[in-house]
Amino acid sequence: MNPFTYTRAGDAQQAINAFQGSPGPFYVAGATDVMQLLREDVYSPGTLVDISSLPYTQVEVGPRGARIGALARLADVADDDAVLRYYPLLARVLRETASTQIRNVATMGGNLLQRTRCLYFRDAHTACNKRRPGSGCAAMRGANRINAILGTSEQCIAAYPGDMAVALVVLDAHIQLEGPDGPRSVPVAELHRVPADDPAHDTTLRPGEIITRIDLPASRFAESCAFVKARDRMTFEWALASAAVGLEMDGGTVRVARVAAGGVGTVPWPLPRVEHALIGKALSAERAAKAAALSVEGARSAGDNGFKLKLLPRVVEQAILAAGGQA
Amino acid sequence: MTDSNNPPGRRTGARAIVERALQAEQRDEDEKAGELVEQAVRIDPDEVASVLQEQSSTPSAPIHAGSSFAIVLTINGQRHELMIDARTTLLDALRDRLHLTGTKRGCDLGQCGACTVLLDGRAVNACMMFAVMAEGHDVLTIEGLAADGKLHPVQKAFIDCDALQCGYCTPGQIMNAVGMIRAGRLNSDDEIREGMSGNICRCGAYPGIVQAVLAAMTEIAE
Lengths: 327, 222
Known about the structure:
The complex is a heterodimer.
Chain A: E1 5-8, H1 12-20, E2 25-28, H2 32-39, E3 47-50, E4 59-62, E5 65-69, H3 74-78, H4 81-86, H5 88-95, H6 100-103, H7 108-112, H8 164-170, E6 174-178, E7 184-187, E8 210-216, E9 225-230, E10 241-250, E11 253-262, E12 269-270, H9 272-278, H10 285-293, H11 308-323
Parallel strand pairs in A: 1-3, 2-3
Antiparallel strand pairs in A: 4-5, 5-8, 6-7, 6-8, 9-10, 10-11, 11-12
Helix pairs in contact in A: 9-10, 10-11
Chain B: H1 13-26, H2 30-41, H3 45-56, E1 63-66, E2 68-75, E3 78-85, H4 90-97, E4 116-119, E5 122-125, E6 138-140, H5 153-160, H6 170-183, H7 189-195, H8 206-221
Parallel strand pairs in B: 2-6
Antiparallel strand pairs in B: 2-3, 4-5, 4-6
Helix pairs in contact in B: 1-2, 5-8
């Protein structure tokens, strides 16, 4: 780990000032991902600006909406009774995220911003356009079993690893930001960006911006939602493919469907074609399978990750049926 | 690094020794670094206190702007003042500076759980947290668990259920179990296995560990 200067900010303005006034600044909160990236010399910040003392830890949840502080710990949200009641999809995803120890420390905002698990991004000795723009992509012809099949480019096939963002896309969540140019709001669905020809930038955040809150609209899908996560072991592991589904049913007919996938895209991957194939239709095993088959439209295998072309539709199908109470 | 990033004031003896030790470490002069670290560990408490005072004398400035500084940690109810490099993890501080070696270093990446301690009653990986970030929180390590010479029910259950072989992961297993029992989130074998999944046991003593956690829960409930 290279030496750095440490600064602890007491409020957002102090944090932004410290960020703007320091060489090589980097925000840190729970530090669970940042610590790994520092140890592997993927990050070599001049200054770590610690924002964990900022007052954004509230978990305010009711039937009409939720305001969740970006510095709330994953466990605070996963174990909250109102979250379980009004946003069971979010509670379910968080309970299947990381380990007890990590959930007690990792923050909601930090979880959204976690970096890819691509083996080459995390190995500072290899070529990686995300870590060192222009150096190439060792994953293209390398061990790419965990990499993305959707949203990839000639420059990068790194998968976005998180699941919470996938659930938040289904739930139409927005994040609130503070930054050098003042506050603004961004839909979670527009937070992450596909690599295209600029893989170094994972998100649409501007330099110095801090996520302060995650807002959810009125409770939806509490009756009919599901999250299915396929991974190499039952627990404490990232998804190879995951699917979050929220349905509004009218008897046996799907009135509203929201579907998104994780572990397969370079960003949390919305599946509007799958949704359209469900809306207005009677839910059945056959209908779910037909809709789920559309999840891999435009997907590309890079070699080792080709199994995801078969895995993803099955995970999506399972999640649709579970959400509709037909699992 | 500019002056504005450093706390104002003189280069104290304590700070200078720490900085020299770190520079020696960077140059791989292990022996010299070791000696200097030993010196740093024995730094006059008054000097650390004076650095602490110096740091807190500018209330409007961000706290601890620097690459080495003094911190105060509360471990097992005891207050410790330390001069540290910014990179020092809570695990480094516990083991190498305070000689509380019951907390084990395994993977150093948050994957194995051998370094689990309680922070304000909740299980965390000490290797994944900078020591400075534990300031203002109560840290409980395996050394502080037994009260009045009497083993904690989880410690006793691990012995009774033979929930270990080599024992290296045991302090971390026990601390996570204590945290989860306190949180009241364990209601079945499956929940115990899920809750304990951040603690790896390479000897494979898992059946005994689940048994021990169940036994301790029963004892604590009674």
